[in-house]
Amino acid sequence: MTQSLTPSRPRLTLGTRGSPLALWQAHAVRDALVAAHGWSPGDVAVEVIRTTGDAITDRALAEAGGKGLFTKELEEALLDGRIDLAVHSAKDMATQLPDGLHIAGYLPRADVRDALILREGASLDDLPPGARIGTASLRREAQLRRLRPDLDVSLLRGNVHTRLGKVRDGVFDGTLLALAGLTRLGLADKASAVLPTDAFLPAVGQGAVAIEARLGDAATGEQLAPVLDPATGVAVSMERAFLTELDGSCRTPLAGLARIEGGEVSFRGLLLSPDGREAVEVERRCTISEAVAIGTEAGRDVKARAPRHILPD
Ligand SMILES: NCc1[nH]cc(CCC(=O)O)c1CC(=O)O
Questions:
Q1: d(CA 80, CA 78)
Q2: For residues 101 and 217, is the Cβ–Cβ distance under 8 A?
Q3: Could you write out the DSSP letters of every residue in 12-42?
Q4: How many A from CA of 207 to the centre of ligand 1?
Q5: InterPro entries under this entry (predicted)?
Q6: Environment class of residue 19 by beta-carbon count within 10 Å: exposed (0-12), middle (13-18) or buried (19+)?
Q7: How do 174-178 and 209-214 pair as beta strands?
């Protein structure tokens, strides 16, 4: 009998999009699993799945149909059993998941802040009136208009490298990107400034890697447990409860951030009009066990106070 040269089957198969950022995230989950269990790297397979969102580069994502576009094909593979876990940026996940799936948890969260990337200068104050800033995010666009109504803010799509290229080539004077994404790509040195969260509130889930699984898949759940970060779970679950209550989609400029400090959770949320002129803010402090309920309540409060025309339809 000859010995089989076929490598042994992986213990788990992770699904991911193929962008450099998505691959980094999937490899981070694989590496954490391998380290936690003393496995070898081949025990966790990484399967790249192309999504509808990856194919859309010419239109605003919000126009094309929102966040589900980056997750649909991954979720189908998960439901079919082709993969055991799907790895996503928490920020890019819709609030409603398909029946039978759930977010099993999150890796420890990275820096949540947005970074400003400028062709020249080192802060927002260095930008002259009319400076062209490109961003694909309605949240960033609205907050930037709120801080600097004199800037020329417009749509800039594409992955992180494409956007940085357009600033380098002078198509735009600057852009805004998540510091976490830049750092994951080894590009943190491209940040001209990192914006403090009290002036510029991040997106719900920003900086967190979410791991989606089949409900009831206890075996995978047990394997995953040691790599999950409970504090990130509390914070992002609260933010997503807030988002859910506002029926949030990428069509509405919305921001929210929960932080755990000494057993307490502090939360800030923000709904803006697209031009940044109107803003509804909310702040809460609560215990960890209240976090999700208070996130929901904060969302209801914002909804009740928001001018009708800036609420999502
Ligand atoms: N929407 C794209 C996206 N999804 C997650 C990140 C960055 C990493 C993160 O926030 O976890 C980015 C790029 C960006 O917003 O700059």
A1: 5
A2: no
A3: EEEEE-SSHHHHHHHHHHHHHHHHHHT--GG
A4: 7
A5: HemC, Porphobilin_deaminase_cofac_BS, Porphobilin_deaminase_N, Porphobilinogen_deaminase_C, Porphobilinogen_deaminase_C_sf
A6: buried
A7: unpaired
- Same CATH topology for 114-194 and 229-313: the answer is no
Residue 6 dihedral angles phi and psi, to the nearest 5°: -65, 130
Give residue-wise pLDDT tens across range 199-221.
Answer: 999 999 999 999 999 999 999 99
**Contact (Cβ atoms closer than 8 angstroms) between residue 131 and residue 151:** yes
Domain boundaries, the chain: 1-108+208-228, 114-194, 229-313
Q: Is 274 exposed, middle or buried (0-12, 13-18, 19+ CB in 10 A)?
A: middle
Can you give the pLDDT at residue 18? 94
Q: Which atom of ligand 1 is nearest to the CA of 203?
A: 10
Active site residue 125: no
- Please state which CATH number belongs to domain 1-108+208-228: 3.40.190.10
Q: Give the pLDDT confidence of 89-117 residue by residue, as tens digits.
A: 999 999 999 999 999 999 999 999 999 99
Residues with CB under 6 A from ligand 1: 89, 91-92, 177-178, 180-181, 206-207
Q: How far apart are CA 210 and CA 225, in angstroms?
A: 13
Looking at the domain that runs over 229-313, which CATH code has it been given?
A: 3.30.160.40
The yes or no reply on domain 114-194 and CATH 2.130.10.10 is no
Which atom of ligand 1 is the closest one to the Cα of 114? 16
Catalytic residue among 84, 92, 173, 217: 92
How far does residue 232's CA lie from ligand 1's centre (Å)?
16
